[in-house]
UniProtKB/TrEMBL annotation:
Keyword entries, A-Z: DNA-binding
Name recorded for this polypeptide: TetR family transcriptional regulator
DNA-binding region: 33-52
Keyword DNA-binding: yes
Length: 226
């Protein structure tokens, strides 16, 4: 990669970081203007168009390039569904997930807040990302003897339920992380106790989901009420 290409890539990532930082202040992506972003990056507005067609394409690229890489790294580290030791697989996976959330709060804040936000292109990009993540997790579950009796369709549904369950914890965990890191008056012992309780409850929820699936029969019929 030439120095010019490296500089262009750095500027592109600077745009991503500017959006994430602005969203961390409480703004929604759809409320952020092009001028705000260029001011954060320190470039003139015309420079924006060397990288993106508009704000929607910036948001979509952010999801695909930045958040997609984050989820891929996390997915490779998760032990749920992998054919490994049964030693606290679920507990270790929950700890890894929440640690990742704490380490990159701006990414996860953006994912959760914009998943049902006002930008259609960003919503679709996040939806596609979550579906792909669920599909791969479903394929991982097929490697686990505990889920060999479940068909592919049900494994995908189980994976999607697991992904949605994980995502439901993010905001509460971020609030605890934010208080721990930024509130000087916060009681660190109290916050740690709350984090341990949440970790326990999240692990137990995941155990109920996946242990319950162990007893599920794909031959079971599902009838919708009239």
């Amino acid at each position: 990669m030439s120095s010019r290409e490296k500089k262009k890539l750095q500027t592109r990532h600077a745009f991503f970081s500017a959006v994430l930082d602005l969203c961390m202040t409480g703004q929604s992506f759809s409320s952020i203007s092009l001028r705000q972003v260029t001011r954060e990056v320190g470039v003139v507005p015309t420079a924006f168009y060397r990288h993106f067609d508009d704000m929607e394409s910036l948001g979509e690229a952010l999801v695909v390039e930045e958040l997609g890489s984050t989820l891929a790294i996390l997915r490779d580290g998760l032990q749920i569904g992998r054919k490994r030791s049964f030693d606290r697989q679920i507990a270790k996976s929950i700890q890894l997930f929440l640690h990742t959330v704490s380490a990159q709060p701006q990414y996860w804040q953006f994912l959760v807040s914009e998943r049902f936000g006002g930008s259609e292109s960003v919503r679709k990009a996040i939806s596609n990302l979550v579906k792909m993540h669920g599909k791969i997790l479903g394929e991982d579950l097929a490697l686990q003897p505990a889920f060999a009796h479940i068909n592919d369709y049900d494994r995908r549904l189980l994976a999607e339920a697991g992904v949605n369950l994980f995502f439901s914890w993010i905001i509460d965990w971020l609030e605890l992380t934010y208080s721990e890191q930024h509130d000087d008056e916060a009681d660190s012992a109290e916050i740690e106790a709350k984090k341990q309780l949440m970790l326990h409850n999240c692990t137990r929820q995941a155990q109920m989901l996946f242990y319950g699936a162990y007893n599920w029969k794909s031959s079971e019929e599902t009838h919708l009420s009239d």
